[in-house]
Amino acid sequence: MATVELRFSALPEHVRTARLVAAAVARRAGVDESLLDEVRLAVGEACSRAVGLHQRSGLNGAVRVALIEEEKRFLIEVEDEAGPIGGSAGGGGAGEAEGDADGGEDVLGLAVITGLVEDVEVGNGNEGGLIRMSWPVSTTSVGV
């Protein structure tokens, strides 16, 4: 199992880099070409959401993106340091208490991700929220 890990400051300008790296590693891992736009969009949305949570909370921590190549799946984890997810996907979360725009943006971001990715889990990581997404890889190996 091969893993590539990115850590970047929670700034919007780094989201594009995370999208590009995720798509390149997914292609190399054997994710079907027709799914690469989905990978790019989902990673962009998850990273943008993490950056937004950091900025709204006034945190200076890093966003972590792990790109994990398994035998039959390509897994991406996006983890923030903004504290545990406390029901923000289901309504009534901490972000919504600050105002509809912040909570609504968080819920919308999660809705976009779950609409894009068939296999997605939203939960808590070591420091904050964790979004885990995966895609199938083709059985034929990609050239080195």
TrEMBL record:
<dbReference type="GO" id="GO:0004673">
    <property type="term" value="F:protein histidine kinase activity"/>
</dbReference>
<keyword id="KW-0723">Serine/threonine-protein kinase</keyword>
<keyword id="KW-0547">Nucleotide-binding</keyword>
<keyword id="KW-0418">Kinase</keyword>
<dbReference type="Pfam" id="PF13581">
    <property type="entry name" value="HATPase_c_2"/>
</dbReference>
<keyword id="KW-0808">Transferase</keyword>
<feature type="domain" description="Histidine kinase/HSP90-like ATPase">
    <location>
        <begin position="8"/>
        <end position="135"/>
    </location>
</feature>
<dbReference type="GO" id="GO:0005524">
    <property type="term" value="F:ATP binding"/>
</dbReference>
<dbReference type="InterPro" id="IPR003594">
    <property type="entry name" value="HATPase_dom"/>
</dbReference>
<dbReference type="InterPro" id="IPR036890">
    <property type="entry name" value="HATPase_C_sf"/>
</dbReference>
<dbReference type="GO" id="GO:0004674">
    <property type="term" value="F:protein serine/threonine kinase activity"/>
</dbReference>
<protein>
    <submittedName>
        <fullName>ATP-binding protein</fullName>
        <ecNumber>2.7.13.3</ecNumber>
    </submittedName>
</protein>
<dbReference type="InterPro" id="IPR050267">
    <property type="entry name" value="Anti-sigma-factor_SerPK"/>
</dbReference>
<keyword id="KW-0067">ATP-binding</keyword>
